[in-house]
Amino acid sequence: MITVIYSTHKDKEYNEGFKKHLKSTSGLRDIEIIEFENFGQYSLSNRYNKGIEMSNNDIVVCCHNDIKLSKNWGKKLLKDFNDNPEFSIIGKAGTSYFSESGIYWEKMSSTMVGRVSHQPPGQKKWSSKYSTKINEIVPVISIDGLFISFNKTKVNHFFDESYGKFHFYDHGFCLPNYLDGIKIGVTFSFEITHESVGRPNEEFFKSKDEFVKKYSENLPIDLKPEKIYVPIIKRKPIKNIGKVAVVIPTKGNIELLFQTIESFFDKCDSNYFDIFIADTGSEEEDLTLIKEFVGKYNNIILIEYNYYNFGKINNDVVNNYVGGEYEFILFSNNDIKVLNDVIYGMLKVFKENKRAGTVGCRLHFEDNTVQHDGILLCLQDGMIIPTHKNFKNYYKYSISENESIGNTGGLMMIRTNLFKSTGGFNEGYISCFEDVELNLTLLIKGFKNITCGSLVAYHYESQTRKNDSDDLKKSSVDYNERLIKFISENLNKLKPHLTIIQ
Question: I need a surface site. Which of 131, 142, 270, 363 has the fewest CB within 10 A?
Answer without folding.
Answer: 270
